[in-house]
Write a structure and sequence with these properties.
alpha+beta; Arc Repressor Mutant, subunit A; globular; 138 residues; two-stranded antiparallel ribbon; 4 strands
């Protein structure tokens, strides 16, 4: 795994890629957010300390601080002075908004790929309808 760093904790696994083009703090933030949204991390679960995560990933404390600060500002975690960072209680509206944003991003990727493949709007919609039927989405 050249160019990658992986750390695992009881309920959390973080993979950092030096070649992804995304800042490291953003990679950390997105992976923790994804673990929370997918229920791998639950309300009240303790995250690794900022210093421990920086040490384990062999990165700057400033980088991990930025990721945790962003997560706290977005309402995903809470920093309890002297005790550490914990997963916040889920705000169902926040979770729904994040999931909708993820769907929009996925659709944007699909639309860009369809343009490259020179698919018509109708062909793209047929693919979506076919996938929805196959998945028995209601």
């Amino acid at each position: 795994m050249d160019g990658h760093k992986v750390v695992s904790y009881s309920k959390l696994r973080i993979i950092i890629s030096n070649t992804s083009g995304k800042p490291i703090y953003e990679q950390i933030k997105e992976q923790i957010k994804e673990a929370i949204l997918s229920d791998e991390l639950s309300e009240g679960d303790m995250l690794p300390s900022i210093r421990q995560l920086a040490k384990d990933l062999k990165i700057s404390v400033i980088t991990t601080t930025r990721a945790y600060t962003d997560l706290e500002e977005e309402g995903f975690i809470v920093n309890v002075q002297g005790k550490g960072c914990f997963v916040s209680p889920k705000n169902s509206e926040l979770v729904r908004e994040q999931l909708i944003r993820k769907i929009e991003d996925s659709f944007a990727d699909a639309i860009n790929t369809a343009r490259i493949a020179k698919l018509s709007r109708e062909e793209l919609l047929r693919i979506l309808e076919f996938m929805l039927e196959g998945d028995q989405y209601e």
